[in-house]
Amino acid sequence: MSAPSWSLTWEDDLDTDGHAELAALLHRCFPRSRRLDGSRSWASARPEVRLVGREDGRAVAHVAVLRRHLRVPGSESGVLVGDVGLVGVDPDQQGRGTGRLMLAELARVLAGWALPFGFLTTADDLVGFYAGGGWVRVPARTRMIEPDERVEVYGGPSLVLPVRSTIADWPDVQIVDRNGYEV
User: How far is Cα 110 from Cα 108, in angstroms, rounded to an integer?
Assistant: First the structure.
């Protein structure tokens, strides 16, 4: 097994074929998602950049990042994060270490951008996967806009990756506000 090669692609640089390729990968990763359809390669907020792992020229892993300030009670400026979403590994690649390699590459990208934290929301059964990559579950729930335009407080796990800050620097709050769509 060879390790995937990793590339960053800015959203504005993705052409129609690139979106179609990533949409096909994301469909394989999230076959029950109703928010990914056709050649659309995003579910809610459009990311700023895509980190894509390729093996033999084929996209096999994907993660999207959007830099944003999360609103937190008691802070005027909020917390700058790399908001992470659409984290997926082709089902044919799972169990081969591709996800672990992707999380390590993602951490390098976030560090290169001098971000204090990575941030994501996930399902309970995926917390262990992210913990293996250094992500820490925080008690805060996440308020965000759903694709149908409703504002919702997500009750599932919110995770933080300390990048240029420590987890002790994360605000001790019960809720953070994405102030937008999830990635």
Answer: 6
**CA atoms in the 13 A half-sphere facing the CB of 39:** 8
Tell me the mean pLDDT per 10 residues along the chain, length 183.
Answer: 89 94 93 77 90 96 97 90 97 94 97 97 97 97 91 95 97 93 91
What is the pTM for the complete model shown? 0.93
Q: DSSP for 4-39, please give it.
A: PEEEEEEGGG--HHHHHHHHHHHHHH-TT-SS--TT
Q: What is the CATH number of domain 5-181?
A: 3.40.630.30
**Residues present in the chain in total:** 183
Q: For the chain, what are the domain ranges?
A: 5-181
Residue 143's closest CA among 78, 99, 91? 78
